[in-house]
Amino acid sequence: MDHNTQHFNRPEYIEIPVPPSKGFNPHTNPAFFIYPDGSNMTFWFGQIDDFRRDQLFTNTIFSIQIGAALVILCVMFCVTHADKRKTIVYLLNVSNLFVVIIRGVFFVHYFMGGLARTYTTFTWDTSDVQQSEKATSIVSSICSLILMIGTQISLLLQVRICYALNPRSKTAILVTCGSISGIATTAYLLLGAYTIQLREKPPDMKFMKWAKPVVNALVALSIVSFSGIFSWRMFQSVRNRRRMGFTGIGSLESLLASGFQCLVFPGLVTTALTVAGSTWYIAVNLTTPSDLTAIYNCSAFFAYAFSIPLLKERAQVEKTISVVIAIAGVLVVAYGDGADDGSTSNGEKARLGGNVLIGIGSVLYGLYEVLYKKLLCPPSGASPGRSVVFSNTVCACIGAFTLLFLWIPLPLLHWSGWEIFELPTGKTAKLLGISIAANATFSGSFLILISLTGPVLSSVAALLTIFLVAITDRILFGRELTSAAILGGLLIIAAFALLSWATWKEMIEENEKDTIDSISDVGDHDD
Questions:
Q1: For the chain, what is the largest distance between any 2 Cα atoms, rounded to a whole number of angstroms?
Q2: 281: closest CA among 269, 271, 296?
Q3: Partners of 288 in the beta sheet?
Q4: 288 near 343, Cβ under 8 Å?
Q5: DSSP code of 262?
């Protein structure tokens, strides 16, 4: 027997935990179990580890598919909202996306259910699996088949439309793509039929080892072929428009621009916001609360600093003074009462690292506000109502980007053991729900304020929450409202009032300038 194999005289090897043994790791070495009747079984936790990794990876893939399908559906509905006539390709693509969502939900349930645990890890015997979970696997497989056929038909129709103006190449392209699509679909159906006829018997692993990669390669080849043809036709369309002298963008380019505007720009802004927010949660364990509050709220200064080169704003004395007064108010609130002795549990080096980290977060938060104003706000001539609607739409796009991409590290952190995530229950869940609702209201209102005014005024206005928190603590929890909190709050209020006046004055001047320019244009036209 291998010296790395641990022996246990245990009649029940699943219910009774394996006792620890020096130098023995059940995740890398097998455990040899001897039963009273003389039978034995070798078991190691590496099987469960492999399964959990596969389970996490599979659920991540299908969750991303669900989120991507929802975003694409929203973009398609927005782009074609004004189009009264829906083409066959459009309806087929919408149907395919709905099938992707339904299939993803079923597969996530399947891979989290008992059928996956029993069927994949230990045995092909599914006698203990509930009938509902078996039905789930059947329905999800049917959805996959429908999606496969629907996707191939949709791609064929798109290729046909792309080459409608060139009959000679259209025939050759359609025959080639039709052949690839037919072979891929047939191979997919044959593999599915082979799997179904197995029922609860184990498959021929030598056959499955090469059959599944071949089928997947054929399906991928069909999609890559159609995508390449469609992209080439798109390039030809843009090139022909340029040769004919059209300077505007066509419908195809408009669709690409809409997708870029709806996902990439919010993704850039969301990344800056997420990194900035993450630095706060990391630094809170490294530095003191006073340093954390003072440094992080200096984002108002960085918002003002970034707005000058990026938004081409003029450096005004009123704005500069108001930002300085606001930051001074924050410093008074943070350090005025002298309650914080500046010590941390991790020492001065950790405090320095935390301060540097929160400083980076403060810079990124100021950059986030300015980038939002520059990239994701409507033109200056838009009405306030349209600006509000546009801000809510952008806020939804930021949420969609977060849903699609920014949750991906969470299961990896959980699986690695670096950060364990658990669903909240009881009072914690209630408080988190209230916090989420309040934060959503704040975020939506904050983006609207940036759109209507600017990042500097919005950033200083957000500092008012420091004074409001002190008042709320006094009302709800009876905590003492210190003189430092009152003085700092009054300084922040004064800064906000001064900045509001400066912003209002600037807006009045711009309106007067626009009025004079429009009158001049009318006079020049009459002449």
A1: 110
A2: 296
A3: none
A4: yes
A5: I
Q: Report yes or no on 33 lying in a domain.
A: no
The model's pTM is 0.50
pLDDT tens per residue across span 335-360: 776 655 555 555 667 777 788 888 88
230 and 86 in one domain?
yes
Report CA-CA distances (Å) from 203 to 117, 185, 276, 525: 17, 21, 51, 82
| Per-residue 3-state assignment (H helix, E strand, C coil) for 140-207 | HHHHHHHHHHHHHHHHHHHHHHHCCCCHHHHHHHHHHHHHHHHHHHHHHHHHHHHHHHHCCCCCCHHH
Q: Clarify whether residues 186 and 237 are in a common domain.
A: yes
What is the spatial distance between Cα 219 and Cα 305, in angstroms, rounded to a whole number?
52
> Please, which residues have CB within 8 angstroms of residue 369's CB and are 6 or more apart in sequence?
299, 303, 306, 450, 455, 458, 459
- For residue 312, is it left (φ>0), alpha (ψ between -120 and 50) or beta? left
Same-domain pairing of 229 and 298: no
Q: pLDDT tens digits, residue range 243-286?
A: 665 544 444 444 444 444 555 666 677 777 778 878 887 887 77
Euclidean distance between CA atoms 8 and 93, whole angstroms: 57
- Domain span holding position 438: 256-524
CA distance 358 to 167: 62
Q: Is residue 344 part of a domain?
A: yes
- In this structure, what token pair is assigned to residue 258? 């809409």
**For range 485-500, the mean pLDDT:** 84
